[in-house]
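Subject: design request, 554 residues
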């Protein structure tokens, strides 16, 4: 074997959970959101944000609706400390928003952190220390009791300094870092010991954050771990269970959602999932997943392009084109069957806008987040639905069914030849050069129709094969009469077999589009389509007939 899988071992133990309940539940409301973009997200950037950039990003997070925002690690650097101070000193924090600061369970770090919060109205002190077997044995070389004592001592110092130095509404949060690799019964033991210090009450609940610091298991295991903690922690009713999922296995979103089912009240994450290694839980995706199920996400993501622009400006990294909801390709379909189903579903929703949203390939209406199902991209795998959508929604042409079949085949062949997708303008140019007001090899110079009782006499000047000819004919209408004259000129037996028309826009001054198909009785009844566009419907019809005849002559 080229890949030596024998070198790896399972980093988690099965969870001793009886009668698990999370698998029978559904998400019914949004959790408490906490953005960690300015701390966890910022520390994972090639070039961390400046203070001014963090201030602007903070304002935007408030605008989105976050009520809890982890703003940094004040003891880590002068920039981090300065940012927290400016938020407080410049009165930038709304009264309904709590800032959160992170601190290790180390004396000098805790002291600096508390100093940074002087004057804060609403804040959360987030204390953490690592508890996993690997961290205890390899990094800290301490016993379980020693690691628990670190947490206890840290909690005591935090509480002592908060009580003596801070006057605002200061709440506590504790994280047993590397929780997912910690023995469940030991995690309960450590958290209970910390809570004996913090003394949670109904009016001052303590946040217990249970991070998937590194994903080592499937999302259901994380859910089991969260439910185990909820069932075994003391004073659960006065605790806010929070989760902070990373994305090492690509399941940060799923882990967070299943954790909510398992009893989590709060979710920490970042916009679009930025963070250490493979990132954090993606709050935008989690929130819009809820939105797609009729749940108020309690975040305003109605202008997703603005959210993307802010994220890319400060994080200096792009959003993946296939990102759920936000990616450039999120509302693009290539498959012909997908395009057809999406178009029909949009048509149905347009006819019945009061119905609940239902689309087989789009979980939400892109318009709800400031997007639209456009530009649709057409390649050699696309079908009639996609081509129809582009021609109708972008350019106003509703092609007859049989003509659409022919044109879609032409577009697929063109895309196949180019080995790439065709954009909307390329599709329209192909339509225009093939069908619309075609004047080669035959061109209509002048046209006149006279009506007498039930007949119409047409006379027209036609330029064909470098010669100008006067064509005349009598029929039951202008088109029929012109066909009589053209048959004589061309010595060819053809007849009109299909005719449709519509206005290109819904207004009185709109141009008319006419679609005509002719059948060549001299050549196995082959059918040729032509399109005419003009302000006058009769003239548009004549142009469509000439276009169809020209296609027959080529």
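Subject: RE: design request

Done. Sequence follows.
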């Amino acid at each position: 074997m080229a890949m030596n899988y024998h070198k790896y071992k399972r980093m988690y133990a099965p969870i001793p959970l009886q009668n698990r309940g999370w698998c029978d539940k559904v998400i019914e409301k949004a959790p408490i959101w906490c953005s960690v973009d300015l701390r966890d997200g910022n520390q994972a950037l090639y070039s961390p944000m400046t203070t001014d950039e963090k201030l602007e990003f903070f304002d935007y997070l408030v605008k989105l609706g976050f009520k809890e925002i982890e703003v940094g690690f004040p003891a880590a650097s002068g920039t981090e400390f300065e940012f927290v101070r400016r938020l407080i000193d410049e009165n930038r924090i709304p009264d309904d928003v709590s800032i959160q600061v992170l601190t290790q369970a180390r004396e000098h770090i805790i002291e600096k952190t508390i100093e940074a919060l002087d004057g804060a109205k609403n804040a959360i002190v987030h204390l953490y220390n690592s508890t996993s077997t690997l961290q205890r044995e390899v990094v800290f070389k301490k016993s379980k009791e020693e690691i628990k004592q670190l947490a206890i001592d840290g909690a005591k110092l935090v509480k002592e300094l908060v009580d003596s130095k801070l006057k605002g509404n200061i709440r506590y949060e504790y994280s047993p870092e590397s929780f997912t690799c910690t023995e469940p019964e030991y995690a309960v033991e450590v958290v209970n010991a910390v809570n004996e210090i913090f003394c949670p009450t109904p009016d001052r609940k303590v946040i217990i954050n249970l991070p998937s610091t590194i994903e080592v298991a499937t999302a259901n295991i994380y859910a089991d771990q969260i439910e185990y903690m909820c069932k075994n922690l003391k004073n659960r009713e006065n605790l806010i269970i929070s989760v902070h999922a990373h994305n090492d296995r690509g399941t940060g979103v799923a882990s967070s959602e299943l954790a909510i089912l398992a009893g989590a009240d709060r979710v920490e994450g970042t916009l679009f999932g930025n963070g250490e290694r493979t990132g954090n839980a993606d709050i935008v995706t989690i929130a819009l997943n809820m939105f797609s199920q009729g749940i108020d996400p309690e975040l305003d993501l109605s202008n997703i392009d603005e959210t993307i622009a802010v994220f890319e400006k400060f994080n200096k990294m792009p959003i993946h084109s296939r990102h759920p909801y936000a990616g450039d390709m999120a509302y693009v379909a290539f498959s012909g069957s997908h395009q057809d189903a999406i178009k029909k579903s949009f048509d149905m929703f347009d006819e019945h806008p009061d119905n609940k949203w239902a689309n087989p390939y789009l979980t939400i209406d892109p318009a709800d987040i400031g997007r639209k199902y456009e530009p649709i991209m057409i390649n050699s795998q696309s079908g009639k639905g996609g081509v129809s959508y582009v021609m109708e929604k972008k350019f106003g042409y509703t092609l007859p069914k049989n003509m659409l079949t022919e044109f879609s085949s032409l577009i697929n062949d063109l895309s196949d030849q180019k080995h790439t997708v065709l954009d909307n303008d390329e599709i329209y140019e192909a339509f225009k050069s093939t069908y619309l007001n075609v004047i080669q090899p035959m061109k209509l110079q002048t046209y006149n129709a006279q009506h007498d009782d039930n007949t119409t006499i047409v006379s027209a000047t036609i330029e064909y094969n470098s010669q100008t000819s006067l064509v005349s004919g009598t029929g039951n209408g202008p088109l029929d009469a012109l066909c009589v004259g053209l048959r004589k000129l061309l010595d060819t037996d053809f007849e009109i077999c299909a005719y449709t028309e519509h206005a290109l826009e819904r207004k009185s001054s709109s141009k008319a589009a006419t679609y005509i198909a002719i059948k060549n009785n001299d050549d196995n009844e082959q059918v040729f389509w032509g399109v005419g566009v003009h302000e006058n419907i009769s003239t548009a019809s004549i142009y469509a007939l000439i276009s169809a005849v020209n296609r027959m002559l080529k």
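The first helix runs from residue 37 to 43.
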